[in-house]
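Predict structure. Chain length: 971.
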Amino acid sequence: MSRHRVRLRLNGARIFPIALGLLLGLSPLRSEGKNTYIRESVSLLSRETIMPEILPAKGKTVEQNQPPEGAQNQALDAANQTVSAIMYAHLAEASDLYTKANPAPKDRHSYLENAVDGALSFAVKDEAQRKEYDHLGTEFLKTAALFSRGKIGVATTLVTYGLDKASPDDTPMQRAADFTLGAVKGQSIKMLFGAVSRNYSFAPTKGVFMGIAARDADIVFDRQTFTDPLKTADRLKAETINPQAWLFDAAVFGAAEGAFSGVNKAMGGRLVQNPLASGMVMGGSFGMVNGGSGEIMRQQAEGKPIDWTKVVQKGMIDGGVGVLGAGAGLKFSSTQAHASVERMLAKPAEKVSNTLERWHIGRTTQAREFVVVDGKEALDKFTARHEGAATLNVREVKRVLGVEKFGDIKSLFVQRFGEGQPGIRPAANAADILATCFPEKLTAAERAKHVFPTAKGTIWLETSEAGRLKLATGKTPWEHRNYNPIGKIVRLDGHMITMNVMGPLEIGSVHDPENPKYKDAWNNYDGELARAKKLSADAVSTDVWWGAVEPKPGQFQFKYYDILSSKIASQGLKWVPILSLHECGGNVGDTANVPIPMWIWSKLQSSIGSSNPDAGKFKSEQGNVSSEYVDFWATKHALPFYRNVFTEFQNHFAGKAPIIAEINVSLGPAGELRYPSYNYHDQGSGWPTRGALQAYSDLARESLKTFAIEKYGSEEAAKQAWGEKYGTAIEPPKNAEDFYASGDYRNTQYGKDFFDWYSKSLQQHGNQVLSSALDVFGSKGSAFAGIDLGAKIPGVHWRMGYWENGNIVFTGRQAELSAGLISTGKEDWNEAGGYGYRPLLSVFKDLQTKSPFSRVVPHFTALELPDGQDGAIAQSLPNSLAKWVGKEANNQGLIIKGENALAGTLYDKAAWERMAHLLKGWGDNPNDGFYNGLTFLRMSDVLASEVARQQFAEILARVRPAPSETAKQAQ
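Prediction complete.
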């Protein structure tokens, strides 16, 4: 007995021309009789589209008991005749009955037209004028429905087109039939647009076929198809094979996409990142094609020569309606519409994406869904980060024609690859399916049972309370155009250990990058990048100086960074841009001078409403102001400008998202989350002193007063709590030197309250800036969603204490206090309190839930230095501090990375060993290390030192699994 598998997949590129030919009546089966026409059309339809879908596809293996080709052809003919006879009988009978029983009324209005007319009747009294507006209103609503996306889009399209076809003037049966025809018409246009956009990228060709699809759907899905099919066929032929309409359709789409691409290029690629702009261009093109081609048909039906002026006028009117309708539809529906519109526009940025994919840094998105049969408790522990792996029993969910089918029970092993140990855990060997990030790093055997064996990079796991889980690839799961969320999303990488290098502060001139005199500097940079890649560095971090990219308010210049990032990508390296909202110059190792935009100070003065031109600057205990970074108490005034930098950067570099490994956000002087307490504007405040307090600006004083009143209820109550020495006024310490020297900073209520406020102000600033960055970069639909954000915490390791008899004795920690990193009132300078760093690291922890895609990764500095650095005068504990901060970050479930503080230490093998021992995966015990990556200051120093190059290679070999030969080839 022969068995055949039914194939339900329809190929748009193959079916579209066949269906078009059938509708036109271009086959040799034409006949003058209505019934003969139906019979022959059904026969052709069954042979060309139905029967081949039932028979096995060509090229498939034929089973042994399948009949020979001749017998198969006879069976095909017999089946064809049977299907044709059945379809013919029903359609012919239905056509005759429908013609007799349901003549179309001469003057009928649809429900949609009546609704629009009723709404307009209050404003437009002239009936003839209102009739034209009624047409435009219905076209607006139908276009909005077509451009709505997701489930909302399907529902609105069905309802809108159904109401546009059905009329209250008809019988209930006629209304139901017409509503169905209209609904099918709307959804068919939506589907045909998808088929055309996927199979035709040339704009004029796309325009012609979209015009044909819209006109033919309007003709076919009509009552006349059943009452007078011959007339329908004549209309199809006249309106489809119409060179004038083709010419107009091709010209409209070609001109629209050409203009869009030109404007987009002039705007540096920013226009295409706006989903409304992209969609409205498509909607305008669609409306103009409909209006213009409709006018052509009207003139031809009247036997008139084509008046192209009227055609263009009508097209422009309907095109304007299309622009508004598409915009409304996209705005109404989900942000996933952007991805669909981008595909339809075949935008130039896709060329960049395609090139990047050939470099194996593009994106590939897949998704698979499972039902958890057993192991839900283990899965919950895994998603809560209490465990690094879990084994479950699952059944895969597949949907066939909307019906869910469940596979056999299989065991699934999930692990955060790179978390605690460099390889896949042994428990994976017994599992049927494996799910981790970085499948390209696995052995051939491990890849064979990976849930996505050909994928690269990030893998996402999503769970629902109903016991389902989804696994997806890609920068975010939303890249999968049909991805529907079910619950909580987590990333499966614990993060692979990253080894990055820091690029130079400036190459040539950031203001004049193409000047020929800097050619040698750029050539030297190219050589360093090539050597860094050979060393197996992962990424190069570079400062993107705010003062360079926005010299005037709202005017951005990214040419220097276009060149710089392209050179990084050309070597196969990733890029870590540091959005440097701070000044370059004046800090240790600074070899360039790029101040923050000078115009920001007047903008802040105006926003604050102050007569002081320095209102937005820090003011220290010495009375000096700092222009390195905007005063943290002015952050709310600066935030719109920061957000504009983030937005413009994303818009400009959206096409380079696949090469960006992380976006680091500057949070203070030298890019670090701290006050400028040991910077050049104050005398005698540098290393290894306690530094200078920076709490003396007008905004800071106002903030301190607000804090005190909120805590104690009134100024008088606060003064009473602070006592005679500090309670005369609510203000920062009048004599900071005595405040520290006397011990009052730790031993009085005033001292505890002051540093509680001082440190919380810094934390609030960090939260505000990073929250804004997450809103821009980490939101659903943003170009950079799924890319980690990073921020630096300084290792202020001096004036801390010393070792005595195996224990650490603290001596005040005054430098950390002046920098705002810790406080004195919580009694938390112990392991239980993270040695004072728990509140600061909690800023990062609290931000992890703000975006389901992008994590916030703290970077801690000075990992290479030993305790006791520079003797007793410094009271330095950098190695202990790095361990404390790393451990507390791990306790809070954070991924943390580190940096060296001084370039000169890279020539010292002992410094490399200290950094290596702080990394996860270095020791035999997975709990020994705390850090998930290192960035080395700077690339030139790593490359110049043989010690550095050797140690770099040794660390890589120790903490990163070596892929099998098969895996290497797959990379």
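Summary: The two ends are 47 Å apart (CA to CA).
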